[in-house]
Structures are given as C-alpha cells and as structure tokens.
C-alpha cells in the first residue's frame, strides 16, 4: 500500500474504476466531477470547487468539501475511524 496518493485536475472530470489503495488519498478538482469506485486507506480528503463528488465502496475516514455541488457516498464498507462530511 502506498503512503500517499495525490489526484488533481484543474478542468475536467476525475474518474477511477479501480480501487485506490493508499494510507492517505488527496483529491482536488477546480471544475469537474470526481467519481471514485473504491477507496481503501486511512484518510480520504477531497476538495471540489465546482462539481460533484461520488464515492462508492469506501473504506476510509473522509474529509470532503465542495463549494458548489453534491456529495454522494455509497455504500460504506466500514467505519474504522471517525468520519465527517463537511
């Protein structure tokens, strides 16, 4: 498992069909949607200015922020750490 995985885009969607494995996963998008179909680690931090965040098969604590957009999380595998949606 990797220590840290950083994903960033300025314009456009960020999509992963594979499970992301890392202790810390950082996702940042200025304009566009983030769709992750599997995340496993300790902490997932995501910031999207204009767009939606969709997470499926989540197994990590989360810190998610969006200026304008929706956050959808389903289903959650387990709550190992404290989880907060901001």
From TrEMBL:
<feature type="domain" description="DUF4097">
    <location>
        <begin position="4"/>
        <end position="74"/>
    </location>
</feature>
<dbReference type="Pfam" id="PF13349">
    <property type="entry name" value="DUF4097"/>
</dbReference>
<protein>
    <recommendedName>
        <fullName>DUF4097 domain-containing protein</fullName>
    </recommendedName>
</protein>
<dbReference type="InterPro" id="IPR025164">
    <property type="entry name" value="Toastrack_DUF4097"/>
</dbReference>
């Amino acid at each position: 498992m990797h220590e840290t995985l950083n994903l960033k885009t300025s314009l456009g969607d960020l999509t992963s069909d594979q499970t992301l494995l890392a202790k810390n996963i950082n996702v940042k998008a200025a304009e566009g949607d983030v769709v992750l179909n599997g995340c496993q680690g300790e902490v997932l931090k995501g910031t999207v200015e204009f767009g939606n965040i969709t997470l499926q098969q989540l197994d990590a604590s989360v810190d998610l922020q969006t200026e304008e957009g929706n956050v959808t999380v389903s289903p959650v595998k387990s709550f190992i750490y404290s989880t907060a949606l901001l």
